[in-house]
Amino acid sequence: MFNQPIEPIDTCGCSDTGYLTTRTIPIDLAHGVGQIENVPVYHCRSSACEEFTLPTVVARRIEEIAEQMEETKLDKVVFTWVNHPEPSLGPLSDTSFDSIQEVHIQAFTLQFVGREYEDAHVILVVPGQSIFLKSMLEDTEYYLLRYEAEIRTEGTWFSFYKFYYDEPDFTYEDFLEWSEEGHLKEIGRITMDEVEEALTDEFGEWA
């Protein structure tokens, strides 16, 4: 289990700016070469670049997964953040619950990396925080799905925003500064269980 956030932008293996995405990576195992699917990596988005960089926390998790693969003699697995531990007999502390919740939210948001809907595509994911989408129909139209940690009602809640951004290159750092001026229009709030249906209702099916 990890205890630190993954930044949405870092450095690709080629030294250019790397953007968070997912890919299948090979891994050397005692019983041969295996594969791990859906691994979060930083890549420069160039189709000619085969390099990538693993976030530090992901690299540590890969080591744990490799050990499990060797123990079970598996050749291919899907990347996950947590094992399936035996249930504890004692109650969860608030700290333990918050940690588990953080892992759950980060894993949930990461599954949207690179996703393309009929009318929009995901351009950036800030794990555990935000999902940004850009419209396929209007070049300056964007959407933001943001986790609301301060909402204390039952369930896990996200706010859904629409905004128009005229700059040709969208970067997270510029967005944070720009959004302080109040350009976001809140469409509504939905629970995590409603996110998938809400996005397909708004943008169509995803490929």
Rg value? 18 Å
Helix content: 25-40%
Pattern of helices and strands: EEEHEHEEEEHEH
Q: Please tell me what the overall shape is.
A: globular
Terminal CA distance reads: 30 Å
Instruction: Give the tally of structural domains.
Output: 2
Going by helix content, strand content and strand pairing, the class is alpha+beta
Largest sheet: 5 strands, antiparallel
What fraction of the residues are assigned to beta strands by DSSP?
Answer: 25-35%
Please mark out the parts with pLDDT under 50 across 5 or more consecutive residues, or reply none. Answer: 84-97
How is the quaternary structure best described?
Answer: single chain
- Number of strand segments: 9
Can you put this structure into words, describing what you see?
This protein is α+β, with helices and mostly antiparallel strands. The chain has 2 domains: 70 residues; 94 residues, no CATH class. The protein has 4 helices and 9 strands; from the N terminus they run E-E-E-H-E-H-E-E-E-E-H-E-H. Strands 5-6-7-8-9 form a 5-stranded antiparallel β-sheet, with helices on one face. The chain has a 4-stranded mixed β-sheet with strand order 1-2-3-4, with helices on one face. Helix 1 links the parallel strand 3 and strand 4. The two termini are 30 Å apart. About 7% of the residues have low confidence.
